[in-house]
UniProtKB/TrEMBL annotation:
Pfam families: DUF1516
Superkingdom, natural source: Bacteria
Organism: Aquisalibacillus elongatus
Protein family per UniProt: Belongs to the UPF0344 family.
Protein name, per record: UPF0344 protein EDC24_2061
Amino acid sequence: MADVFLYNTHLHITTWVVGIILFFVVLSLLKKSKEKPAKITHMVLRLFYIFIILTGALLWFSNYSHVGGSLFAESVVKSLAGVWLVAAMEMILVKVKKGKSTFLGWLQFILALILVLSLGFARLQLGILI
């Protein structure tokens, strides 16, 4: 069972790392006004959003759906913060593309990222086992 947990954890972290890298690639392409490459990369990033959410759900259902108490509540908050982080990333990219202010998007991105990382690596069980 520990091997499955470790595999799921690595898969989830890998999708997040690739997703964050793609996010910054799309952001730089949009700032350089390279519309077609930005659009293609953005679509790949959206595919990774799906992978991120699916691997996160797989982790949650295999490890936290049956536990109770504060661990269950923290896992739900971490899951919601992960979805919030994906939404903030998408909001930033759409606003950059439209030429609007992204301050609130970046604020949400930073808050959600801090929440996800602190709960995922420090609070939830086996979070340090990367």
